[in-house]
Amino acid sequence: MPTTPARIVTLRAAGTSFVVELSEPVPRVLHWGADLGELSEDAVEALALTADGAILNNAIDIPRRLTVWPTEAEGWHGTPAHHGHLAGGAGAPRPALTGSAVRQDPDGGGELTLALDDAAAGLDLALTYTLHPSGVLAVAAAVTRRADGTDPAPYDLAQVTTVLPVPRRATEILDFTGKWSRERSPQRRTLDHGTHAREVRRGKPGLDSPYLMTVGEQGFGFGAGEVWAVHVAWSGDQRYLAERLPEGAGVHASVLGGGELLRAGEIRLAPGDTYRSPVCHFAWSDAGLDGLADRFHTLLRARSTHPRTPRPVILNSWEAVYFDHDLDRLLALVSKAAEVGVERFVLDDGWFTGRRSDHAGLGDWAVDPVVWPGGLTPLVDHVRALGMEFGLWVEPEMVNLDSDLAREHPEWVLGPARGVGPSSRHQHVLDLANPDVREYLLTALDDLVATYGIAYLKWDHNRELHEAVHGPGDRPTAHGQVTALYRLLDALKERHPGLEIESCASGGGRIDLGILARTDRVWASDCNDPVERQEIQRWTAQLLPPELVGSHIGPSPSHTTGRLTSDAFRLTTALFGHPGIEQDITGCTPEELARLTAWTALYRELRPLLHGGRMVRADLEGDATLLHGVVAHDGAAALYCWARVATSPEGQSGRVRMPGLAADATYRVRIRTDLGLPSLHQTSGPAWFDRAVEGELTLPGAVLAVAGVPMPMLNPEQALLIEVRKVA
């Protein structure tokens, strides 16, 4: 049970400490980062004593403090914890602590809750800090308009931002941008004075999502450097920030934080109403980006809702048949899928009423009787008879104006009262905040899942939200759209507890821990080109473990880039995720089918390692080569991918260290040739490589992990699998 804490509260887990002083009127964070150990009473007092800086010239006459709910009342000129107004007034919040409770967990971590009061605005403020055993700190806030009967006016809440302090040595920012088929492209810059803010106004995190904003020591990499990061677990409009002021943030230099981006007038708190912020997940590591990733992967794998069964090999029909839903053709595709080892067949877009192209049909979630006169039963029965699960593509939040639904209920289309704006991908958005819309969708989806025993829904979201308002007054509803989506997903999962759902949004446009609290995997990108996918998957893994990331092999040339690549390169790339096939394999040659069959067998062999180990990535010069892998948590086994995506000036790789191995151990190394050898830009060697191709080679960890080994020179767009097993 939570207890009333002492004046200074310490939560510790997985090498992280979070220390808060319950100072008045508002508590402050004394430390967030490296574990300070079990602090004595004198050490705790020393930490508090050293938490005040100098009183500066031309400044307020008390030491500036960065509190847990920073406002101008304490001399804070950065982004405030919240701002808004009460009928044009109450514009100077002065929160004060009214209560607190703490829970210490026996396995590490715990929870601290703080209650504050903003008397002028009649607001009750609540902050909850949960330090998970992984060392990830989850922070959530709630703002409640008190129902005390003194003032019936609503409080217009403009923004709630959660921030934590970071030290002066954090001088560099890493976040992400992107576009369709090139999601999660990293970008770096110096953390200078001012605010580095990333605002998302797309109604979903977007293809250019900041994703995970990280600040750290100059030059931090995958394996080295102290780093601090934040992720906003919200599937709509977001705001991330890293902020540095000349006067600092108390004794700290900067703050890192985020929250939901609210539209003007969107959150009006009548007496008794509460706004609950998205959870912001903060993490610290002194082992670089891989250390951060390990914390988030551990957090996600510890969830009660995390997939526990082996992730099945998927064949998705989209790039195989597109809208050409001919039963005989699909039955042949299913049969061939079973032959090569597919475990789940997913029927993509084109199955429902009037859906012969993307111009019509969205919203009419009934099987098309013209194309499917017997319903989906003949296909589903064939899928199950061959030992596979059946999945189906849907896009419930969207509607084509050329649909029975839009013609019957034009008022269900989200947009201004004076008329909707332009379509995007020939579609508009349904107003999920309308309970009639949610009930219609829940009924339609429930019927489909129950009728066909559907195991898996590929849930798409192919356009951004523009003019997200509803009702005669054009009230903003981007927030309401997300909360309604969450209710819809929760209700569907409650009715079908075993149902798995994939979050797809034009590829990787809605990947966040809010949607993943209700879904079981994400589609990283519509791009299956392995050159692009090597980068996309490398950075998607900064937050998500591979078993949650859909990673399919597509045909050559690529559907999205037109690039020609070898099937071995495509297969190797797709192995490091939740693998699947996205092509018409009925047209494959016997040799190609044999490699697909070998690939599914290899995946099933390595699946426990790939989906249970610790991801590692090597820091290499340039972008032409990549080395990444998965190492078992007990160190007994590892699998690495050495890939070349472009040529480089160098003729030799030099010694390359294999991250994650122990220097004092001995390992057996072999090159996995199940998919064939890649094309090499050399005549032979290196010597260790030639021997590892022929059979197992024993090498000490000191050579593999510390000195490094020279890598073979691959031709561009080639990849190699290196298996490492520890000698008992």
UniProtKB/TrEMBL annotation:
Pfam families (UniProt xref): Glyco_hydro_36C, Glyco_hydro_36N, Melibiase
Residue ranges of domain Glycosyl hydrolase family 36 N-terminal in the record: 27-270
Enzyme Commission code(s) on record: 3.2.1.22
Domain Glycosyl hydrolase family 36 C-terminal positions: 630-715
Xref: InterPro entries: Aldolase_TIM, Alpga-gal_N_sf, Alpha-glycosidase_related, GH, Glyco_hydro_27/36_CS, Glyco_hydro_36, Glyco_hydro_36_C, Glyco_hydro_36_N
Disordered: annotated segments: 184-203
Transmembrane segments: none
Keywords: Glycosidase, Hydrolase
Catalytically driven reaction(s): Hydrolysis of terminal, non-reducing alpha-D-galactose residues in alpha-D-galactosides, including galactose oligosaccharides, galactomannans and galactolipids
GO molecular function (one): alpha-galactosidase activity
Naturally occurring in which organism (per UniProt): Actinacidiphila polyblastidii
Protein name: alpha-galactosidase
PANTHER family in the cross-refs: ALPHA-GALACTOSIDASE C-RELATED, GLYCOSIDASE FAMILY 31
Composition skew (Basic and acidic residues), residue ranges: 184-202
